[in-house]
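so the lab meeting is tmrw and i was supposed to have these ready like two days ago... anyway. pasting both below. for each one the top line is the aa sequence and the line under it is the structure tokens. i havent really looked at them closely yet so no promises
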Amino acid sequence: MSQDSAAVPDAARKLAARRRREIVAVLLFSGGPIFESSIPLSVFGIDRQDAGVPRYRLLVCAGEDAPLRTTGGLELSAPYGLEAISRAGTVVVPAWRSITQAPPPAALDALRRAHEEGARIVGLCTGAFVLAAAGLLDGRPATTHWMYAPTLAKRYPSVHVDPRELFVDDGDVLTSAGTAAGIDLCLHIVRTDHGADAANALARRLVVPPRRTASDLGHQRYLDRSLPEEIGADPLAEVVAWALEHLHEQFDVETLAARAYMSRRTFDRRFRSLTGSAPLQWLITQRVLQAQRLLETSDYSVDEVAGRCGFRSPVALRGHFRRQLGASPAAYRAAYRARRPQGGPDSLRPERGERTAPGSGGADRFSAAAVAGHGQTPAMAAAEAGEQGEAGKPRSDAFASRLPEAPVGRGAGRPVLPSQRERPVG
């Protein structure tokens, strides 16, 4: 599901007569993070008609009984209660205080009623959990903060979670990824309502890009080893720990299943129930992450990096690396080093041949400006050129760009993470 999908459902409910399109209700809860809460207040609550931005009317509503305390201990007093939502054509849930807690039933009822009466419902970041609890995401594509996406998919299996998107517009229900992606979604709403000129004028006023994409941000380049907390007490935790310590070896999911004393089918089902993702996709992601670290912290060649991350060939590494991170391994290393000062802590790299333990050192991300949204750096361009053969033809990873992309959107009811493909690793 692309973030500005042209396939927005046409079956949106007709807006009830008492609701107004220009009225935006923001639903606040105690314990919510103040940054996410402030995004819709700033976008929809300030009169910027002098800058060419059409005016919205903002209703800040308490989703539960006062007092409402934000992160940092600030206390808020919302001027409206849940009854004010009945006038809104757009209802925004900017965040939810804890993914382990159930939202107040009265707030969920108000959201369902608003949706039934044609209001547009928006969940920013963990606000998606509130929409899911209300049943508004059933059978729909959605996104949330990448760290909580597996939990959302596990808890609400009928929601098609795609953590790769900055936001997902499914017509009358919209969701965004973490924190700043809420700004992108709010700008998208303004663009949908009033056109590109209004959204661009607002973006200039806020001093933010008018339209970002996941590739511009380098979204999903923030790879890590994170798994839901509940796996820590599960017997599979030992198998996961073994896999992370042996990424330099060549093994597959069947090996992991055997270590867990399970059949492949049982292991897949158990792993999905705990993490929300397939074991193969998780294993590939961890291998790519390890390659990312070695490219940052060592002088190993790409071929050597592939071997030390358990890929059966450099071709396999290049294909998976490019699909997950949007750049070749050589271009990634060049961009990373180009922005690191010589002699700094991050410039220390083991000599060729010195072993680097799996999971050691290195940042887990790189600059989107260097690799994605703002054009190639000279170092990156040179590295890309170095991987090209005669007449600009790619060499060993020539087939990679022709591999099918992972399904997105209304898929199997589980999160569609990078490189979810049931085929042998490497």
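ok protien two:
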Amino acid sequence: MTSSEPSTTDNNYKGWSGIKRAFATPSALTLFCLGIGSGLPFLLVGGMTLSTWLRDVGFELSVIGLISFAGFFYVLKFLWAPLIDKYSLPFLGRRKGWLVVSQILLIATLVAIALLRPESSLSIFIVLVGIAAFAGATLDTVVDAYRIEIAPPEFQAALASTYILGYRIALILSGAVAFYLAELWGWRVAYLVMALFLLIPLVASIISKEPDNQRALAVRDIHIADAFIKPFQEFFSRNGILLAVALLAFVGLFKLPDQMIGVMAGPFYLDSGYTKADIATVSKLFGVWVGIAGAFLGGICIAAFSMRSMLFVATIIVSISNIAYLLMANNPGQEWAFFAAISADNISQGFAGVVLVAFMSSLTNQNFTATQYALLASLANLPGKFIGGLSGYIVEATSYSWFYIYSSLSVVPTLLILAWLWKRLQKP
């Protein structure tokens, strides 16, 4: 289904003609399918679909927020990423083997979650959600490593865009489609159908080709203890301690305004008077397509402008978009407010997501692709995941309106770090 893209000097993916050429490669199609695999579990095991299900069957906001901590596996995936870098499974290849195994485990646990249901046994349900999150986080780690290894650096913006296109399509499936199915036939059917959709990336993983990256194979020759140490050691020695810490802090805070509000989104929509069908249509159908447009806009802008300029633009619009939710908080049940808030939020998410993926990809060493990218991706989710888990208490202590104001103001530390990094970030 794909082959490694040659990294010759003839490959120029800048400009409009380069963008079209990059999107037309076989790797782009593979990453589209793998994006579906990475995106499907996100809402189902730690995001809005799961939180809406829990609210729909009567759980309190504080409990919903705490259950979202099961998604912390996405934050901690750098802890087992060195094993993925070092070891190959005895079938399919170094990357493909892990792709297939993680997806099979994910499918199995989603089926178990659907058959059990939270009201039957909450403790077992939480364990299953945790296992699904672990499988999804592992899949994320391998897909990121595969994407970086399959093509040269100048191709990464296009691959990031097609990957995020697949990811956003998956959000339509696990959001809008799941909500429609839940409205018509219940949450059990919705989750079973989501498990079936995962067959698409599973088949793509089986028939795709292994990245031809001999440099990465050197990782397998080092001692197991060094497999955990060397990726981090290399990152800090290459950048210097001060710059490395600043880069990690910037990545960790970049998506904080958006991630703070993620867990409470579903309950907020329900509490504002919208039905599950309304949420599916506006948030998870219309909104995702707006997000796809934002993602492609981000890919084009990265090809046309400097990375650091796009980092600044993305940081600002992610913060400002949260203010749009005040329209919904002050106009409950009004469709125009719903459409306005979702438009602002999703176009900023799509744009910023591509910018962040391309930036993090540029920071990795291909000898330690899975581990270093997993570290960056984990940091990109850590602050928001932690605060998101406590978001129910914040809303109950204040209000939805103040919560959105706080989330928007959380951009200030990110801007301060970016100001310090400005002259230290190389222009492409």
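from a quick look at the 2nd one: The CA atoms of residues 282 and 339 lie 6 Å apart. The two ends are 31 Å apart (CA to CA). will dig more after coffe
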